[in-house]
UniProtKB/TrEMBL annotation:
This is Zinc finger BED domain-containing protein 4-like. The gene is LOC112681555. SUPFAM superfamilies: Ribonuclease H-like. The lineage of its organism: Eukaryota, Metazoa, Ecdysozoa, Arthropoda, Hexapoda. One of its GO terms (cellular component) is nucleus. One of its GO terms (biological process) is regulation of transcription by RNA polymerase II. GO terms for molecular function: protein dimerization activity. It comes from Sipha flava.
Length: 219
């Protein structure tokens, strides 16, 4: 899952910092590794997808964000997406709404205004606004690492319904920079971690051999 990328980067850096080497070469190696890690991975909190995936994972939420500005930016992005979803739902509701009670007295409700105010107050009390729902989620308990976040979201989708929709969209993003055709294809099976230096011509031959039906082999 992409939600693991940022926590793993910080975990790696933390483990490196805890090491106290005594040999000069090891000291330089530690320094260089931390330097390279910061250089190559410092922008991950600033990307659009990875921080959202991390925050929507109930195992991590916002506890791994080092940059307060990045944390705030991700929260605003999530709230904006929830607001956009609300706008779509409200527009659909308005387009399918029945005519008001102006034409028939039997549909008039003298307590209609009170019910509207009551709903607004209850919504605020239950944190049903996008910002309130996100804040409640962030203050909710952190899930243990060995538990499945997707199952947890199924269990809490009635508590955080708007966030649940976003979680189902972002938590399934694979945590890899490898193109999808490398993950779900014959080429992906052929070009494995231990065979990633194959030449193009050799790969073509191997893929051809894999495409030949077993019945064609005279074994």
């Amino acid at each position: 899952m992409s939600s693991k990328v940022i926590p793993l980067i910080l975990g790696t850096r933390n483990e490196l910092e805890k090491k106290i080497p005594n040999v000069a070469v090891a000291i330089r190696l530690k320094s260089k590794l931390i330097e390279e890690l910061d250089y190559r991975c410092r922008a991950y909190e600033q990307t659009s997808i990875l921080p959202i995936c991390t925050m929507l994972d109930p195992r991590f939420k916002d506890i791994h964000f080092k940059n307060p500005l990045a944390n705030s930016k991700v929260q605003e992005s999530i709230v904006q997406m929830m607001n956009n979803d609300n706008d779509i739902v409200e527009n659909e509701t308005l387009s399918t709404a029945e005519p008001d009670c102006s034409n028939t007295d039997k549909h008039c409700d003298l307590w209609g205004h009170h019910k509207s105010l009551e709903k607004k107050r209850n919504d605020r009390a239950c944190n049903n606004t996008p910002r309130g729902e996100l804040n409640s989620y962030l203050h909710y308990k952190i899930l243990k690492l060995d538990l499945d976040p997707l199952i947890e979201w199924e269990n809490t989708k009635t508590i955080f319904p708007k966030l649940y929709k976003l979680a189902m969209k972002y938590l399934v993003v694979p945590g890899t920079s490898v193109p999808s055709e490398r993950l779900f294809s014959k080429a992906g099976e052929t070009i494995s971690k231990t065979r990633n230096r194959l030449t193009g011509s050799r790969i073509s031959k191997l893929l051809f051999l894999q495409s030949v039906d077993k019945s064609q082999w005279n074994f």
